[in-house]
Design a protein that fits this description.
The chain is an alpha+beta fold. Strand 18 and strand 19 form a beta hairpin. The longest helix has 12 residues. The protein is elongated and about 75 Å long.
Length: about 300
């Protein structure tokens, strides 16, 4: 019997030493599906929440990848590396003391909106080429600054080992933030250098590590049981219900006017995304209200099929 297609969101607890692409491959093999993606890379060193998209859910990645993320980050001060984490080559050493009080005084400077220059060893593409591939060739190119937001930066632990300060932080930040760059920049600001020595992502948006499936648990049956529906993953978006007789038109990208809409929110702003669902509650598409006065909805991303779900 052919395996049933799976369309939804899966939360995995990534182990250290594996790339995000390694995890995608593992889930592809476990499910027999080719269409598997993720919403944000975790470095091989890092562990924790990796949000995967299966089947038609690969179309909704943009709605999840910029969700706030929470990390527990371990840092060592007095060294800096070429990758900004402990896996890299040491390029700077310092004996400048870093006290707990100095860290507490510094942290407000790195809270709120800050600028970061992405590290060379990263998946960001410039001119169509991932930076990490250029770094492997020994090249370093200019990278534009990016604005990111650190919503919370909390010092959880501080200790001295072998003469070097070690700290553990809880970081709640916007999508696109590089925590190793945050640690690197804090070290530079103190004149001591700093390197990320451990990183665990504990939350992405509403998804926490307590919900996550481990790689060892990831067989098809367990994945099906833990799969989050696309509708559930997008529950923060308002919903519009269309008449079942118009589903075919909608799936073909046709605009639906007010006469074909059974229910909608009282107030929806034009050009904001809504979930477009059938009378049976099946998610069909993500659309935009193109005319607030007449309440026309145009599908932008179709996630339903001829069988609706």
């Amino acid at each position: 019997m052919q395996n049933r297609e799976m369309n939804g969101v899966l939360v995995i607890d990534k182990p250290s030493g594996r790339t995000s692409h390694d995890i995608v491959d593992i889930i592809r093999k476990a499910t027999g599906m080719k269409k598997v993606g993720h919403t944000g890379t975790l470095d091989p060193l890092a562990t924790g929440v990796l949000v995967l998209l299966l089947g038609r859910a690969t179309r909704i990645g943009r709605f999840l990848e910029l969700e706030p993320k929470e990390y527990i980050a371990g840092a060592v001060f007095g060294i800096a590396t070429d990758t900004q984490d402990i896996t890299g080559t040491i390029i700077e050493k310092s004996n400048t003391p870093v006290t707990k009080d100095a860290l507490k005084r510094l942290m407000p400077e790195f809270t709120g909106e800050i600028s970061q220059i992405p590290p060379m060893v990263s998946a960001i593409k410039i001119g169509g080429k991932p930076l990490y591939k250029l770094a492997r060739q020994g090249k370093e190119i200019e990278r534009p600054e990016r604005k990111v937001t650190i919503f919370e930066l909390v010092l959880l632990d501080y200790s001295i080992t072998d003469g070097k300060a070690h700290a553990v932080f809880r970081v709640l930040c916007s999508g696109g933030t590089y925590v190793r760059t945050l640690i690197h920049d804090m070290g530079a600001r103190l004149g001591a250098g700093a390197t990320l020595e451990s990183l665990r992502r504990t939350r992405v948006g509403v998804y926490t590590v307590s919900q996550a499936l481990t790689v060892d648990e990831a067989n098809r049956e367990a994945i099906e049981a833990r799969l989050i529906s696309m509708d559930g993953a997008l529950a923060h978006l308002p919903q519009v219900i269309v008449q079942n007789g118009l589903i075919g038109l909608l799936l073909n990208g046709q605009k639906i006017d007010a006469k074909g809409i059974k229910a909608h929110p009282d107030a929806v702003v034009s050009d904001e995304f809504v979930r477009v669902k059938s009378e049976n509650g099946v998610l069909l598409a993500l659309g935009k209200v193109t005319n607030e006065a007449t309440f026309e909805v145009k599908p932008e991303i179709v996630v339903g099929s001829g069988g609706q779900g």
